Structure formats: C-alpha cells, structure tokens
Amino acid sequence: MHFFKSLFIAVTVSIAVNVSGQTLEVPLITNVSVDKVSQKPRITWSMTDPSTIDGYIIKRQIFGRQGVVDGSYETVATINDPSQFSYLDVSADAILGPAEPGLKPENYRVASFKDVGGGTPQYSLMSEPVATIFLSPIAFDLCLEQNTLNWTAYNGFGENLTGYNIYYSNTLTGAITLVGKVNGDITTFVHEKVEANTTYFYYVEAVDTGNLMANSNIQQITTTMPPLPQVMNADYASVEQDGIVSLSFTLDENAEVNEYLLLKSNTLNGAYDTISSFPNGSGIVTYSDNLSTNEQIAYYKVHAINTCGLPSRATTWLII
After folding, report:
1. Domain range holding 236?
2. Residue 167 is part of a domain; what is its CATH number?
3. pTM for the full model?
4. pLDDT reported for residue 228
C-alpha cells in the first residue's frame, strides 16, 4: 500500500486579462492533493485552450522564512509546457524552503504566461488559492481505546464537496482499510475500539460530486498501553484459628497501576466482593480475613487496576 470551517471557492469560468492585445486564460485548479508516496503536494489544473499560452507558474504561500513576507505567494516552479497540467512540489529552494504538508496546509495558485517578445513574459491573473488538507497529529485515548482525527476543511471543490473518507493501515505498505465517512461540513472523526500497542497510519480523502479526490498528509500513532504487571502470584492461604484466614500475595511493585484490589467470593465463578486494597508499589502483601460460621469455602484473588480504573490482570485463586 502506498499512502499515502474553511475558505469557500467556486470557480465556474476562467478569469482572463488582456495582455498586448491577447487574452490569457487563467488556469483552473481542479485539486491539490498530498501524494501518497512522496508526501508532497500535487497541484492539478485545467485549461480550455492551452495552445494560446507558453506555460505556467506555480506559486506557494510562504510563512516563517527569513526575507520573505509572511503570507505572500512566491513562485516555486515555472513550467514551459502548456500541455502539462500537474506539478508535484518537491522544490527545496534555500530561501522559500520545501513544501511541508505534514506540518501545515500548503496553499497554491497557478497562472499562465505567454512570451510576447522583448524577453519579458506576460502573465494571466492568478487562480483562486487552493490548500492541501492538513491532518493534525492523532489524539489517542487509552482509557476509551479510541483515536480522534481532526483535519482542515478542503476548499478545492467548493459546493461540489460531498464528504470525506477516512482510511488507515497498520503499515505503510499494508492493506488500506476504509474506517469511516463523514459529510463535507465535518472535519473530525473518532476511530473506536482500536487495538492496544498497535501502529496506525491515517489519511483523509476529500471527494466531490464528479468523483475527484484530494488526499491529506499521513499521520502515524501508536496506541501504547501501560505494560501489565509482570508479577501477580497467589502465595498461600491458611486457616490460623477461630476462622481467621491468613493470605499472602506477591505483586509487581514497579507496575504502572493505580492500585491492587483483594477480592473474595463463595463460588469460583460467582460474583466477587472487594474486601481490601493495596497501593501501587506494593510487593509482598498479607491480609487476614474472618470466615463467618456459615462459610465452608472461600475464593480469593487480587486484581491489578490500571490507570484507567479498569482491571488489567489478576492472580490465580487461593481457596480455603
């Protein structure tokens, strides 16, 4: 597998400018998508009659670069083939810097140009800006066992945006799974019941009425859970006198748990009641229990309670 609210834009006609007696058509950006393999933005556009021009310039909005005005659109590529309608922005200009769709939305505009002589090309107006979808870092909730995704709304399809598809894979080259779909006015999704200690690679895909698609960047998350206690031993249980039962357990004093609960039941598979608790950091613990006169048998065990307040591991039973 290769991996892989907002500005509103609805462009239905090309804008033109009269240059030296000629009218230059403005390119129409059809989509801006993060390439699944390179994780760089790919800009795609269309022209009604490319034979009337000599090429295109691609401009990217720049932020945080010394010597460049924040928010200005600067040329990152000049294309001298009027029949080329796509550009993968792998530019790495020392001043403008590389495109980084994994860190922020990347905004683009395209213009056409024509050589009218004199060594100075004439340019059309710039197209309306279109940005990549930016999928933010994934938020993992270990207690709810879910991953929450948030992304920027895609402005490239305008009113034709029908919604977003959410995909994941467990490896960059593994099978892709469509985990959910949301409407075009929604930019968040919760992936529930994720597996513990598993890596997920996510991306979001915008879809329009004409089945055009635009992908976000990929975000990776590993659902790291606290390790289970390594030591959970039921050592012994003995009746001392007058119905007093002495219990001993060896627990993992270094485990990432909230506490340990001592449980008791009259039947092996019945309901257990909590009769005591031991704090995190406990090693060997002992407890004395009083058996009532009508109790002929009792079952004891210790449960480790994790940081979410849920049982994570139990000892074997001690039977009296």
Report:
1. 232-319
2. 2.60.40.10
3. 0.80
4. 85
